[in-house]
């Protein structure tokens, strides 16, 4: 059996559900479906409290880093 992965979703992230669905197929969901209080993966693996906590912390910190970089670039452009 070949190892299957999620195809790239244009304009957004993707998450491969850890378990196969009832038909033995891989299920991929958008990042926005993780921890949205709706079980999108088989067995609700996208709503596990520990995963949601980690996801929230990472998401918040990534946004802070992104904002820091954008602010720095804007400042650099103004100073030129």
From TrEMBL:
Gene3D superfamilies: Low-density Lipoprotein Receptor. The keyword Disulfide bond applies. GO terms for molecular function: transmembrane receptor protein tyrosine kinase activator activity. SUPFAM superfamilies: LDL receptor-like module. GO terms for cellular component: terminal bouton. Keywords: Disulfide bond. GO terms for biological process: positive regulation of MAPK cascade. This is Uncharacterized protein.
């Amino acid at each position: 059996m070949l190892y299957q992965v999620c195809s790239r979703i244009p304009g957004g992230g993707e998450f491969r559900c850890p378990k196969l669905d009832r038909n033995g197929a891989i299920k991929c969901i958008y990042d926005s479906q993780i921890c949205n209080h709706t079980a999108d993966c088989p067995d609700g693996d996208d709503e596990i409290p520990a995963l949601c906590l980690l996801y929230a912390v990472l998401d918040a910190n990534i946004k802070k880093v992104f904002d820091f970089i954008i602010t720095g670039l804007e400042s650099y452009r103004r100073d030129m």
